[in-house]
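FIELD: query
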Amino acid sequence: MSQFDQKTANTIKRVPFVITDEERGLLPRFANRPPSAVLPQESSGLTRRYPPYPERYTFEPSERWVRGVVGDVAVVDSRSQILVWEPRHKVPEYGFPVEHVRTDLLTPSEGVPEPGIFYRPRTTDVKWFDLHLGERHIPFAAWSWNEPGLEGYLGVNWFLGVLDGWYEEDQPVMTHPRDPHNRVDALPSSRHVTVKVNGRVIAETNDPVLVYETGLPTRYYFPIEAVDFSALTETEDWSECPYKGYSDRYWRSNEGEDLIAWSYSDPRPELSVIAGRIAFYNERVELLVDGESVN
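FIELD: result
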């Protein structure tokens, strides 16, 4: 277990997992957009482009070397898996050929996990398996889909605390497989960005970093000195992202219970520009960019 994983296991709690509108495939509703007055008029020959979330299962071959480990044992080792998207969902899972999974360590599960306890699968139409390795008993470690064409594949649980680690090639990856069609750009900017809570300015800067991620709202990361922490209460929550890394600090407003801000102390190298900066949930605060509301 990594140093961070041990810390989280001993001292802090993960941000509660909920099925959001984004996960239900309603992402276009949240997509940043200019005022409606400047948008082209849609017609039979012109429509706005949205990330595709088909109404059926979709898949894509992957040639990455993917391994899932328990202790020093690779219980999954594949170079020819597929990415599987459930209907109307943004985030994929890997489907591994059965012969690339240590099925000798699997037994049918008794019962099913509580709804929402894991990221995937969303559907309940699966058969679950527990994993046994030495004295380790890991419930709901894998599943098989009840979907024609996927009979020869198994999903294996990526949720933190199930297997001990996942690797694409030799790089650790957490939370879920990375989507090859997903892009994350972190761009320093000179826009004037302000955050208010109940009319009070709690963050303001002309030096934000804007994070653009396919299908998600733009997030605005503030320098730490631009945030009024007297209006915030730090919590023991944390979360993880396969693109950005571990978000190890969260805050709520002194006037509410909802989490409204977070930070990555040590993000993945490709997102290092956001290290230590503070971002806010656009939908939980009043956010103004160059004087215009983006809520």
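FIELD: remark
Residues 1-13, 16-36 have pLDDT under 50 and may be disordered.
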